[in-house]
Amino acid sequence: MVMLAEEVKGFLRNVPPFQFLEDNSLSNIAADISLEFYPKGATILRQDGPPSDVLRIIKKGGVKVFIASENGDEVIIDYRSEGDVFGLLSLVGGDKSRANVVAIDDTICYLIKKEKILKLIDTNPLFTEFFLKSFLSKYIDKTYKEMHNKSLLYGGGEKLLFTTPVGEIATKVVMTASQEITIQEAAEIMSREKNSSLILVDREGIPTGIVTDRDLRDKVVAKGRNPDDKINRIMSVSLIKAEARDYCFEALLKMIRYNIHHLLVVDEGRMKGIITNHDLLMLQGTSPISVAREIEGQQTIEGLIPVSKKINKIIGLLLNEGARASNITRIISEINDRLQRKILEITEKKLGMPPVNYCWIIFGSEGRKEQTFRTDQDNAIIYADPYSEEEGVEIRRYFSDFATSVRESLVLCGFPICPANYMASNPQWCQPVRVWKKYFSTWIYTPTPEAVLRSLIFFDFRPLHGDFSLADEVRESLKTVLEGQMIFLGYMANTIIKNAPPVGFFRSFIVEKGGEHKDLLNLKVKGLAPFVDMVRLFALEKGLRETSTIERIGALRAIHTILNEYAEELEYAFEFIMHLRIEHQFRQIESGIEPDNFINPNNLSTLEKKIIRDAFTLISKMQDILIERYKPLIW
After folding, report:
1. Is the alpha carbon torsion for 51, 56, 60, 64 positive or negative?
2. 517-566 pLDDT, tens per residue?
3. What is the DSSP string of 8-68?
4. How large is the C-alpha radius of gyration of the chain?
5. How far apart are CA 70 and CA 349, in angstroms?
6. What does the CA dihedral 187, 188, 191, 196 come to, rounded to 10 degrees?
């Protein structure tokens, strides 16, 4: 028994916050501790069920902590493993369990009785601060905000862009009129009702279009159109809709993407209301929509420069609103896409339309929609195959001037030049369709280290501007060539597993040994890249067209054996590291420092250290799986 107590004390000395306790307090706990085993899949605590009467500390194994929303969706709070605790909130509250806790592996827990924990909370300030400040506020409160419930700690609950369903702020009364009325009659209705939009319906009352005050201004007044014309002559036929249950940031993305001010809100197909950009402006104070509008209104590169500087400020706004990292990157990607498209349009006007159809593609973090603060340019041009060598010379001359002009304009708007020259201004990456197909097939059939590296870079491409069918043709060719090419995928896997996670034998962080970033941890190379690379590999195995890491995980859940088991853990770990990186870079920018990817692990909280270690452990586990999966092919 003495040996067991000493073993327990040794274990607890490495577990926060028990590491803060004096030896006699640890001895008191160890003398009255018990062990319990839970098989994989066992529900240990059930949401809204009886409260926990013990604090559980995981000795071996792991658990998933999650909350089930009203519509049955799971909202993951945390994954916990060796040294982590759970059940405190219901133990202290004493009324019910706040979340579901399920064993994700065969799990053994130490159990400490409720009265001992309550006594420690009453008598030990460090112990109390750890639980009630670090643990509760960082995880429980944040998760409940994401579910649009009241905060467990602070009551109230501010309505935010990422927690408010569209249906809650949509105008409940939708102004409709027959599509057969005149422009004059429509304007009179909108003026009388003080509405900026009017939904037009057919004889059965089914929505057929929308007319806005902007339409009246741009299509009637500016064009001198006869007000006696039918309203259906100027209405927008494409009704962009939002589901009532969607969060407002989804509506925001649609408004930016389609350059519109109004969205029809539907609930299971039935009209529920309408939402405007003004509604979103009022909701969040300052809106990304306004920046997107400013970009759209510019006609010169000089006019875009000051607007482009406002984009970084949006990230601070989104961070303050509690946005998930993937939501931040999606919104910033939409705005950056708009900025780059505007630059391309301005350049086309300056140089004249190109001699053949082309598609401007982007890759890297831009291609994956994972860009935050401005990163290096990663772009290329795919153009239609020329009919003759003479035509080819003319095409190359045009696109050389075009790509160079775009490159310099992007630099002025905050996109640095790619040091490795992966840009359309490099003739190697400005080629016709047939050459791009040959590039991809050559890399796949002859998987040299350089070929695999380029595959990791270019296979995340997505079309941004121009003739998207050219990019689709190249993507389809890539998919065809990849089918059954396990040798190439094996070489890619071999490259991926060489980027080992930065955790030593004793779970200490392996940091940079020298140079400018000595003693710092590279979140991009060592934290995010392994997830991006592994998920890309799985996506290529299945021939998916998605490029975003989160979208790839979502698409792979139901069709890939490995992702079916690890999807939630991968998504959670990727989101956490991405969020850590965004916060770090934002603090640097606020301090006037050029943002980078290097953090000092000693500045992380105990919980942040624990989670990032768990993320690195997951990387190691996934790399072991890759080794077993591809070992027969190339090792």
Report:
1. positive
2. 888 999 999 999 999 999 999 999 998 989 999 999 999 998 998 888 88
3. HHHHHTTSTTGGGS-HHHHHHHHTT-EEEEE-TT-EEE-TTSPPPSEEEEEEESEEEEEEE
4. 28
5. 52
6. -30
Q: How distant, in Å, are the alpha carbons of 1, 209, 362, 398, 569 from that of 258?
A: 70, 15, 20, 30, 34
How many C-beta atoms lie closer than 10 Å to residue 329's C-beta? 25
If pLDDT is split at 50, 70 and 90, which confidence band does 220 have? confident
Handedness of CA 97, 101, 106, 109 (dihedral sign): negative
Assign 404 a pLDDT band (cuts: 50, 70, 90): very high
Distances (CA, A) of 485 to 193, 221, 244, 444, 478: 63, 60, 44, 8, 11
Helix (H, G, I), strand (E, B) or coil at 103: strand
Q: Round to the nearest angstrom and report the end-to-end CA distance of the chain.
A: 48
3-state secondary structure of 96: coil
Judging by DSSP bridges, how do beta strands 62-68 and 107-113 pair with one another? unpaired
The SS3 assignment for 230 reads strand
Q: Are 352 and 337 in contact (CB under 8 A)?
A: no
User: Measured in whole angstroms, how far is the alpha carbon of residue 119 from the centre of its chain?
Assistant: 42
* pLDDT greater than 90 at residue 463: yes
**Edge-to-edge, what's the strand order for the sheet holding 241-243?**
241-243, 262-267, 270-276
Two structure tokens written together for 259 = 């350059």
pTM of the predicted structure, to 2 decimals? 0.63
Q: Which residue has the tokens 């002559």?
A: 233
Three-state DSSP at 224 gives coil
Cβ neighbours of residue 180 closer than 8 Å, sequence gap 6 or more? 230, 231, 232
Question: Can you spell out the DSSP letters for 324-386?
Answer: -HHHHHHHHHHHHHHHHHHHHHHHHHHH-S-SS-EEEEE-HHHHTT---S-----EEEEEPPP
Is the peptide bond between 632 and the residue preceding it cis, with omega within 30 degrees of 0? no
- pLDDT interval class at 140 (50, 70, 90): very low
CA angle 504, 505, 511 (to 5 degrees): 10
More confident residue, 380 or 259: 380
Of the candidates 323, 289, 313, which has an alpha carbon nearest to the alpha carbon of residue 373?
Answer: 313
CA distance 112 to 29: 7
